[in-house]
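Internal ticket - ligand job 320, 1,3-dihydroxyacetonephosphate:
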Amino acid sequence: MTVAVAGSGAFGTAMAAALARKGPVILWSRSADQVADIQANRCNSARLPGIDLPEGLSATADFAALRTAEVILLAVPMQQLRHLLTQHGDLLMDRRLVACCKGIELNTGLGPVAVIAETLPAATAALLTGPSFAAEIARGLPTALTLACADADAGEMLQQQLSTPSLRLYRTTDTTGAELGGALKNVIAIACGAVIGAGLGNSARAALMTRGYAEMLRMAAALGARPDTLAGLSGFGDLTLTCTSEQSRNYRLGLSIGRGDDFDPSITVEGAATARAVAASAQARGIDMPITKSVVALLDKKQTLTELVSQLLTRSLKEE
Ligand SMILES: NC(=O)C1=CN([C@@H]2O[C@H](COP(=O)(O)OP(=O)(O)OC[C@H]3O[C@@H](n4cnc5c(N)ncnc54)[C@H](O)[C@@H]3O)[C@@H](O)[C@H]2O)C=CC1
Ligand SMILES: O=C(CO)COP(=O)(O)O
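stdout (structure tokens):
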């Protein structure tokens, strides 16, 4: 079986490297320079500097090379997924597609599996998500992830195909829960970074993680997701990782806001668009998500962190 990965960013390259240790993997990049770098130096210097890529990984800038692949991982940022699917729909339309994005589409409020299902209904749509930093996966460090696919048989097959000795995949058919966990934890990570950056302390971070998790559960319940999915790797697991590590770009954006520093806008930070999409969806559904709403106000510079923290603390007192 040939696996392909579309998108040669940090995560796409990392997954291609991990899977290439057990069989051939084709990594497609829209950048001819990056393909040349990988072919010449066996390294993606821009996204995963210092990490040697295995020989089983071949890079190409020609999307048609993915024709031989039965399973294709889609490793582009969430807001680019629909464009990728539409642009290459002829080839992708009947494949097993595994989105690796963690986010909610801004204009539609849909997660990655729903975007695949809407755009290419004949494809099998799955999601790979959970606590994992690209550089650690690429180095072969032990990692556990969630593979979500509504079709239980296809999900089991993908679980087998994409697990490796260092990458242990659990499976679920609850794609909505897995989408929401991976998307919403990024928003909470921005909030956590902001309070740590501003020196407000670890207790404040723990409060945000816990009450943020309560927001995740409320949205999940409203959308019919299973609470146990949110308690798993794709929800609680990834929330823990992302809210506590400076390897996370979402957390680092928060840190820079809290410290009053600039942040490089070219860095992929999924939580920013997702916060806006989720806040709008929560408002339309009447779901209380004060932390998510505060993150939007912070990103839009509508209110200061001091004002927002004070507002959160002085809301009417209630049962936990
Ligand atoms: N970096 C990480 O540790 C992890 C990332 N993810 C998720 O993976 C997704 C991708 O993130 P990264 O790879 O880290 O981002 P990245 O910023 O390193 O790479 C994104 C890649 O997508 C490519 N791209 C963007 N739009 C495209 C398009 N329309 N067509 C083709 N290629 C396009 C860019 O050229 C770039 O190579 C995100 O949703 C992220 O949340 C998930 C787990 C871990
Ligand atoms: O999703 C991730 C960890 O599981 C990566 O987090 P960032 O996108 O914040 O870097």
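Auto-summary: The pocket of 1,3-dihydroxyacetonephosphate (ligand 2) is lined by residues 102, 131-133, 186, 189, 238, 241-242, 248-250, 270 (CB under 6 Å). The CA atoms of residues 148 and 174 lie 6 Å apart.
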